């Protein structure tokens, strides 16, 4: 087995503990931005609220550029804001 494959598998072990593991994936990837989609996002975030691995999930989403869906208790716009803030912080630190 290639070392990278083992490393990736070990890195993703947190998924086994995720509260969403037995949930319908469509709940976390709603289509649209209004009505039923907003209800799905809220329901997905409630699942995340009881999840023991939200930090790992969010880190994975931010690090791998997951642009859609609910990850680590955050929606698309929230992760976009986090990424922008992080990029701006890095720019400010490198300018010093």
UniProtKB/TrEMBL annotation:
<keyword id="KW-0408">Iron</keyword>
<keyword id="KW-0004">4Fe-4S</keyword>
<feature type="binding site">
    <location>
        <position position="57"/>
    </location>
    <ligand>
        <name>[4Fe-4S] cluster</name>
    </ligand>
</feature>
<keyword id="KW-1015">Disulfide bond</keyword>
<keyword id="KW-0963">Cytoplasm</keyword>
<keyword id="KW-0805">Transcription regulation</keyword>
<keyword id="KW-0238">DNA-binding</keyword>
<feature type="binding site">
    <location>
        <position position="20"/>
    </location>
    <ligand>
        <name>[4Fe-4S] cluster</name>
    </ligand>
</feature>
<feature type="binding site">
    <location>
        <position position="48"/>
    </location>
    <ligand>
        <name>[4Fe-4S] cluster</name>
    </ligand>
</feature>
<keyword id="KW-0411">Iron-sulfur</keyword>
<dbReference type="InterPro" id="IPR003482">
    <property type="entry name" value="Whib"/>
</dbReference>
<dbReference type="Pfam" id="PF02467">
    <property type="entry name" value="Whib"/>
</dbReference>
<keyword id="KW-0479">Metal-binding</keyword>
<feature type="domain" description="4Fe-4S Wbl-type">
    <location>
        <begin position="19"/>
        <end position="81"/>
    </location>
</feature>
<dbReference type="InterPro" id="IPR034768">
    <property type="entry name" value="4FE4S_WBL"/>
</dbReference>
<comment type="function">
    <text>Acts as a transcriptional regulator. Probably redox-responsive. The apo- but not holo-form probably binds DNA.</text>
</comment>
<keyword id="KW-0804">Transcription</keyword>
<comment type="similarity">
    <text>Belongs to the WhiB family.</text>
</comment>
<feature type="binding site">
    <location>
        <position position="51"/>
    </location>
    <ligand>
        <name>[4Fe-4S] cluster</name>
    </ligand>
</feature>
<protein>
    <recommendedName>
        <fullName>Transcriptional regulator WhiB</fullName>
    </recommendedName>
</protein>
């Amino acid at each position: 087995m290639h070392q990278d494959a083992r490393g990736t598998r070990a890195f993703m072990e947190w998924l086994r503990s995720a509260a969403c593991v037995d949930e319908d994936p469509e709940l976390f990837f709603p289509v649209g931005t209004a009505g039923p989609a907003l209800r799905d996002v809220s329901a997905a975030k409630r699942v995340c609220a009881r999840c023991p691995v939200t930090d790992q999930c969010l880190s994975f989403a931010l690090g791998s550029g997951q642009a859609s869906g609910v990850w680590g208790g955050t929606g698309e716009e929230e992760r976009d804001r986090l990424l922008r803030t992080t990029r701006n912080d890095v720019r400010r630190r490198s300018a010093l």
